[in-house]
Amino acid sequence: MTAIVSSPFFRGAQTGPTRCRVLLTKLIKQGCLLGLVCSTPLEASEGGGSNYLPGFYGDFAMAVMPEKGTFFNNFFAAYQDGSGKTGTLLEMPGIIQATGKKILGGNYSFGLYPGLVATKDHSNGNTMDRVGLGDAYLIPVALNWQWEKVTVLAFEGIVAPTGYYEKGALNAGRNIWTFDHILALTWQLPAENELSITLGYMNNLKNPLTDYRSGDEFHFDYSLGHYLKPELAVGVTGSHYRQIGADHAPANIIAAERSEASSIGPVVLYTPYLFNRDITMSLKWLHEFNVQGRASQEYLVWRVFMAF
User: Fold this and answer.
1) Of 29, 75, 89, 242, most Cβ neighbours within 10 A?
2) With contact defined as beta carbons under 8 Å apart, do 225 and 189 qualify?
3) What is the pLDDT of residue 258?
4) What is the pTM of this model?
5) 3-class secondary structure for 225-284?
6) Which helix (DSSP H) or strand (DSSP E) does residue 288 occupy?
7) From CA 200, how far away is CA 6, in angstroms rounded?
8) What is d(CA 117, CA 130) in angstroms, rounded to the nearest whole number?
9) Is the dihedral of CA 219, 75, 291, 178 positive or negative?
10) Domains identified in the chain and CATH numbers
11) Following DSSP, what letter does each residue of 127-162 receive, concatenated?
12) Interior CA angle at 226 toward 221 and 227, to 5°?
């Protein structure tokens, strides 16, 4: 298991007459990074794990990014299988720096998301528990382009193997580097609605302790939301994940079956004014279906964002 980001993450939109546009403009001024990826354990590739987590890319304004400033973006996720015998808590306090500089015409930002993990495996007679540092998610380059109704975000995410790892143990990290190539889009629709989508492709490097290389992975996240008022929105979010590349394992290890899963669920966004600042929070629940190669999961994901 590891830790990266959603989202995608960021912001950017123009002013306009509708409350939807007003909210997006407000988010821009606040620097509301609402996406980023969180790498966490999913059942796929080596040891039934992946650095992709459903729900961390699909959210309101997932392609919106701040123009300048320093921001705190906290992710918390809780998930388990249907039996409740395996489960994970993931905490990722992230820092985003929006530089105010432009590269190729896009606003440049970077960020860091360390991960803290508590996980259990009480299945098949196991009584294993682990609490510790998870893998970190780095974003060295994020570029954001803004037009009147459309915002585009491209960034490179890197999962660094900072989490605890031991062969044959229940681990908090995966001991591999993963490169996550992301393209996100947020589109302001009529009647105070919004559509956000994110496409991602992951390349995994070899685990040096096991000589095992997990195959490449594709992920797609989406969110369709409606703004009831400038500070409150509701919507539907979901994802699709598929391991598209074969694993490469040593002769004495059986390569894992390729995994695939989809998810869907409700999401709510609320931005109260507290402590002399706007604090944006989102909460979502995701139910998995059409799961292959691993056990299905139920996910609860909570995000809090504010400017320093």
Assistant:
1) 75
2) no
3) 83
4) 0.83
5) EEEEECCEEEEEEEEEEEECCCCECCCCCCCCCCCEEEEEEEEEEECCEECCEECEEEEE
6) strand 280-292
7) 10
8) 8
9) positive
10) 19-307 (2.40.160.40)
11) -EEEEEEEEEEEEEEEEEEE-SSEEEEEEEEEEE--
12) 125
